[in-house]
Design goal:
Blueprint lengths: L7 E4 L3 H14 L3 E11 L2 H6 L2 H12 L3 H5 L12 E8 L6 E11 L5 E11 H20 L2 E2 L13 E2 L11 E4 L11 H15 L17
Parallel strand pairs: 2-3
Antiparallel strand pairs: 1-8, 2-4, 4-5, 6-7
């Protein structure tokens, strides 16, 4: 009614963004993640707030759900209802301030039941990483307030009205850990797919066709 936008929960800047890329790569390559363990400690206000159990539980849900659609997309690797063990730990350590430490371990099953382990350690000023990305979020949302569209057909007796995009602005999924989508719409967490959707919508705004990587003109005989 008010034509306000809803984007989702929990901003996505570092550790979860890497997770949405790496998990997609592993699953698409036929490598089965069995366990994903993520540990963080930081000393800024974010860390202090997350030391409260209720706040941490909300963060734990948004961080762990980021691999759901990638796991669900491959029914050869995962049976129905099967899911990798996914553990999230966040600790408040005041002395480190804004310098967040993030450690991740991915244990995956490979050929003949073998195991592969990938470990990642990252240190970054948390607020400096997030601030410019939050500006991007604001700019994208503001742009969408100025976009309207209409669908015309030869059967229309009168000119159709211009309409805004759906109030649940799923184009913002690229920037959020827990995207919100319109009813009966699939949730996409894979970062490359989120980026492609955003880019192709921008291309449509200026009358360009969507990008794809087929490049058939370079792969067929002429």
């Amino acid at each position: 009614r008010e034509r306000s936008f809803v984007g989702g929960d929990d901003f996505k800047s570092g550790q979860t963004k890497i997770k949405s890329v790496l998990a997609e790569f592993l699953v698409n390559a036929g490598i089965k993640p069995l366990a994903i363990t993520s540990y963080n400690h930081l000393g800024n206000n974010d860390g202090r707030n997350l030391s409260a159990p209720a706040q941490f539980r909300s963060k734990e849900i948004s961080k762990s759900s980021v691999v759901d659609d990638m796991v669900g997309s491959n029914n050869l690797l995962y049976k129905k209802g099967e899911h990798p063990d996914h553990t999230i730990v966040i600790k408040y350590v005041p002395s480190v301030g804004d310098s967040k430490r993030a450690l991740d371990e991915y244990v995956s099953e490979i050929f003949m039941g073998g195991l592969n382990t990938i470990s990642i350690y990252n240190t970054c000023e948390d607020s400096l990483l997030a601030s410019p990305l939050i500006i991007d979020l604001f700019m994208m949302t503001e742009l969408m307030t100025r976009v309207t569209y209409r669908v015309k057909s030869d059967a229309d007796a009168v000119e159709p009205q211009w309409q805004p995009f759906h109030s649940v602005l799923s184009i913002l999924s690229y920037m959020l850990k827990a995207p919100v989508v319109a009813p009966n719409t699939p949730v996409v967490n894979a970062l490359a797919k989120q980026r492609m959707a955003m880019e192709n919508i921008m291309r449509a705004f200026v009358g360009l066709p969507p990008n794809n990587e087929m490049l058939l003109e370079h792969k067929a005989f002429h």
